[in-house]
Amino acid sequence: MINPFLDFSDGTKVVCSDPINIDGRMCVRVLFERWSAERNDYDRMECLLPDGEMTGVKGFTQEEVLYHHGKMIQMQDNILEWSKEDAEERRDEDE
């Protein structure tokens, strides 16, 4: 499941996945997207936490990538924990 997380003033929306088990590690996919009227398309990129590498960058400048990457690294422990808690709460509600 994808969970809304942040909206930046430049129109960038950030959403996070539920926890994903990759090779025995808990990971969360963080997706960034904003509309670009200039390109008539969405700017996109994603980050897999806790690794933190930005991939699939389309439309964002290098400066913007570094800015968002820094924010995700600063908040990665919280993002991982919140994602886990949200998934557990939904499981409890479904039972």
What does this structure look like?
- The mean pLDDT is 89.
- Strands 1, 2, 3, 4, 5 and 6 form a six-stranded antiparallel β-sheet that branches.
- The chain has one domain (3-93).
- It is an alpha+beta fold and 95 residues long.
- The protein contains one helix and six strands; from the N terminus they run ββββββα.
- It is 35% helix and 42% strand.
- The longest helix is centred in the last third of the chain and has 33 residues, at 62-94.
- The relative contact order is 0.17.
- It has one helix at 62-94, and strands at residues 2-7, 13-17, 20-22, 25-36, 41-49, 54-58.
List its traits:
95 residues; alpha+beta; 6-stranded antiparallel sheet; 1 helix
Write the layout of secondary structure elements.
Elements: E1 2-7, E2 13-17, E3 20-22, E4 25-36, E5 41-49, E6 54-58, H1 62-94
Antiparallel strand pairs: 1-2, 2-4, 3-4, 4-5, 5-6
- The gyration radius over C-alpha positions equals 14 Å
Low-confidence stretches: none
Order of helices and strands: EEEEEEH
Q: In whole angstroms, how far apart are the ends?
A: 17 Å
What about the largest sheet? Answer: 6 strands, antiparallel
Structural class by secondary-structure content? alpha+beta
Total of DSSP H or I helical runs spanning 4+ residues: 1
Describe the global form.
Answer: globular
The oligomeric state of the chains shown is single chain
Number of strands: 6
Report the mean per-residue pLDDT as an integer: 89
> Helix share of residues?
25-40%
How many domains would you count in the coordinates? Answer: 1
Share of residues in strands: 35-45%
